[in-house]
Design goal:
Oligomer: single chain
Number of domains: 1
Largest sheet: 7 strands, mixed
CATH superfamily: Gcn5-related N-acetyltransferase (GNAT)
Structural class: alpha+beta
Strand order of the largest sheet: 1-2-3-4-5-7-6
CATH class: Alpha Beta
Shape: globular
CATH architecture: 3-Layer(aba) Sandwich
Length: 150
């Protein structure tokens, strides 16, 4: 699968904010415009556009959370027109590999809405282990640096 992750820049940010999840997923994820704004206040975070060939199909944001100094994958969004093709799984594998290559990585964390079965299934397939419910109500899961992403 030829997916490439590229930095969100002044040249592609408007295309990025046009990407949308399915209607039934909108309750589970912040918009890309919110995520890009949020990233400006999280200096250790990366925002990447997901490309299939030369077409932008998704967005991902990750970095070191200032509260616990762990790497967190804050967002993964594949545009509704491009779901069901394995792009989410492939994107996550690439993001996990990028994070694991960093010298300061210990664990990789994710959190998702308890009703988001798609996210739960994806993270489980990738080897994330559920830790329980976070104080803010989402399910937290961890992938240790030494664990292999499936």
């Amino acid at each position: 699968m030829n997916l490439v992750l590229k930095e969100v820049t002044s040249e592609n940010w408007e295309e990025c904010i046009e990407l949308q999840p399915r209607e039934d997923q909108k309750q589970f994820i912040a918009s890309n415009v919110y995520s890009l704004a949020q990233s400006k206040f999280l200096p250790n975070f990366e925002t990447l556009a997901v490309y299939k060939d030369e077409r932008m199909v998704g967005f991902v944001m990750f970095g070191i959370d200032p509260d616990d100094s762990q790497y967190w994958i804050y967002r993964l969004m594949i545009d509704s027109r491009h779901q069901g093709k394995g792009y989410g799984m492939e994107t996550m594998k690439q993001v996990i590999a990028r994070i694991k290559a960093k010298p300061d990585t210990t664990d990789i964390m994710v959190a998702y809405h308890p009703d988001n079965q798609g996210a739960a299934t994806l993270y489980e397939k990738l080897g994330f282990k559920v830790l329980g419910k976070a104080p803010w109500g989402e399910i937290m899961a961890r992938l240790s640096k030494d664990d292999e992403a499936n």
